[in-house]
Design brief:
The protein is of the alpha/beta class. The chain contains 7 helices and 7 strands, in the order E-H-E-H-E-H-H-E-H-E-H-E-E-H. The chain has a 7-stranded mixed sheet, with helices on one face. Helix 1 packs parallel to helix 7 and helix 6 crosses helix 7. It starts with a strand and ends with a helix.
Length: 191
C-alpha cells in the first residue's frame, strides 16, 4: 500500500497532471489519490477518468467558504497536494493543514513573471516581450501567497529572438513533463 497519496489540483488541459498520473502508476510508495478541479469543463477531468483517477469538482464557495474540500482531502487520506495548472490561491486552512506538503510548478524562472494573473500564455508573452534569452520552470513549495514558497528545483531553456510565445511554451512544456513527476517523487521521499 502506498505511503503517500497525492491530490492533484488542476484547472485546465492537464498535460502535467497526465504526466504525473503516468509516472506514479504502479509506484510502490506514492499514489495519485484524486484529481481536484475548480473547472467542471476542464479537459484534465477526462484525462483523470482515462487513468481511473477519482475526480472532485468544487465551486469557489466550496473552496473558500466551507470545509468541503479539506474534508474530502482527509476522507481520501491525502498526504500531499500537487498543483498542476491550478489558478486559484489556496485558502490558509488548506496551507495550514498540509505544512510543507504542497508543491507547485510555474512556467518561468521565478521571481520573474510570477504572481497573480501570471499563468499560461501570459507568462510566455511576457518572456517574449522582455527579450529574455532564458526561461524555464520553477518548482516550489506553496505558501499563502502566489509563487512565493521556497524553491525546490528549476530548469532552463534558451529563448531565441525569433521564438513566438507558443514556441516558448512548447520548450517549457518539455521541461515540465520531463522534471515535475521526478521532482515530486524526490520531494516526497526526502521529506
Amino acid at each position: 500500500m502506498p505511503t503517500a497519496r497525492i491530490a492533484i489540483f488542476a484547472s485546465g488541459n492537464g498535460t502535467n497532471a497526465e504526466a504525473i498520473f503516468t509516472y506514479f502508476q504502479g509506484h510502490p510508495s506514492i499514489a495519485v489519490g484524486a484529481l481536484f478541479s475548480n473547472n467542471p469543463r476542464a479537459y484534465v477531468l477526462q484525462r483523470a477518468q482515462r487513468h481511473s483517477i477519482p475526480t472532485v469538482v468544487f465551486s469557489r464557495t466550496d473552496f473558500y467558504e466551507t470545509t468541503k474540500v479539506i474534508d474530502l482531502l482527509a476522507e481520501l487520506e491525502i498526504t500531499h497536494i500537487v498543483l498542476a495548472g491550478f489558478l486559484w490561491l489556496l485558502p490558509p486552512a488548506i496551507v495550514a493543514a498540509f505544512p510543507a506538503r504542497i508543491i507547485n510548478i510555474h512556467p518561468a524562472l521565478l521571481p520573474k513573471y510570477g504572481g497573480k494573473g501570471m499563468y499560461g500564455s501570459r507568462v510566455h508573452e511576457a518572456v517574449k516581450a522582455s527579450g529574455d534569452r532564458l526561461t524555464g520552470i520553477t518548482i516550489h513549495e506553496v505558501t499563502e501567497n502566489y509563487d512565493d514558497g521556497p524553491l525546490i528545483f528549476s530548469a532552463t531553456c534558451d529563448v531565441n529572438p525569433e521564438d513566438s510565445p507558443e514556441e516558448i511554451a512548447g520548450k517549457v512544456h518539455v521541461l515540465e513533463h520531463m522534471h515535475y513527476p521526478r521532482i515530486i517523487e524526490k520531494w516526497i521521499n526526502n521529506a
